[in-house]
Amino acid sequence: MSDPETATHENSNRPLLWGRFSAVVLVLTLIGVALDQATKLWVLHGSGIPQNGPIPVLPILDFVLVWNRGISYGLFQQNSDLGRWLLAGATVVITIGLWIWSARCQSKLLAVALGFVIAGAIGNGIDRLAYGAVVDFVYFHVGTFSWYVFNLADVWIVAGVACLLYDSFANGPNSAAK
Asked: Where in the sequence numbering do the catalytic residues fall?
């Protein structure tokens, strides 16, 4: 067990905003946000979906346009400006917290995971600020089974969470907290 003075000294040496893998996180974030926003701009302005409706891609996949005013899986739908700005504010606070965590991480896998989650949060946050809702457009369905509609930002978040889970199990129960 370490004494409080040693623990305080160790924490004061940890970076707050830029760390060992911050460049990895930044590059992944920028690429992820760019790809997410490019696909959403295509759906809104280049695909014809808003005017002509869904585009069948495969028997189990369509591109559609859905405005999500909530969070994942359409939870906590917000139809007021107050709700929109509260979700946008929460996104900013969470993203800052994730960035600080990424600056302190000591694992490349953890950095990649956080880069994915940050990219997804920023991508959906941009939509919320620009349009008042998140642009979702990828729709999987098989027979009568219908999966939720999502976007690339959602893919980045799910991939990041999967990496976080893998990291926490592969490296021990306390590895994600380090």
From this structure: 136, 154
